[in-house]
Here is the input.
Amino acid sequence: MPIDAAGALAAAPRVREIAWDHKDVQLYHLGIGAGRPATDPRELRYTLESRLHVLPSFATVAGGGAPGVIGTLSAPGVDVDLARVLHGGQQLRLHRPVPVRGRASAASRVVAVHDKGTAAVLVLRTEVTDADGPLWTDEAEVFVRGEGGWGGDRGPSGRPSPPPADHPPDQVVERALREDQALLYRLSGDWNPLHADPEFAARAGFERPVLHGLCTYGATLKAVVDTLLDGDVTRVRDYRTRFAGVVYPGETLRVRMWRTAGTGGAGTGEVRVAVSAVERDDVPVLADTVVRYG
Here is the structure.
């Protein structure tokens, strides 16, 4: 069997040293759609080095190299075709604000392998630490189509409670994506041809190259921070989502947000988010999305 669950779980963490600076941060921000309008002070905090703030989702590309989805495929015990792989979900926990420049150690290992019957799901956890201690922890859920059915654990079934059906969103914003959005975003390190090569995309079952899920992930967090957190990137504590559908470059994202009270005292809370593609009758693209803030 291409996936050796026991071997993947028993493998020691793979550790690599990562580094980044303001140029990497600025490129990432441009890749998720920042900088429009170019002279807007609210956008300059993402694009101008003299006043740069780091959107926490930059952590998913910090240091370059392969993202969690690609990294999972090179884990011990995993040997699968990239064309059968989908990014199922992402969670990011911030221990401290992400600095504009830094050097850190990133330790990654597969912490779960679930048998969903028609697919296998692998969870790759990466813990990033610098000289001052833990910086962030992220987890990527990777679906491998056609690799389930060996009788393994199906994994947890619990999901975040959905936004209240009887309550309109507190905020709704739309974010137009560039036609070349995926080509720009991939310069931050995700070279999966699914996002650029029409022939590869067709082999994977898509009509044309699709946008990186993590690009939608970043654009959504930016919408939440700019709209409900007064642009303060340091307030984000935890951000999770499930990738519910594809986004095509050039489409428009509709981001609906519901603010709920937090349990950590005054000034804390969470935002439930639903994201859809406007041009395709609001088909869902991100679901079970929660931003926790302090």
Remarks:
- The chain has a mean pLDDT of 91.
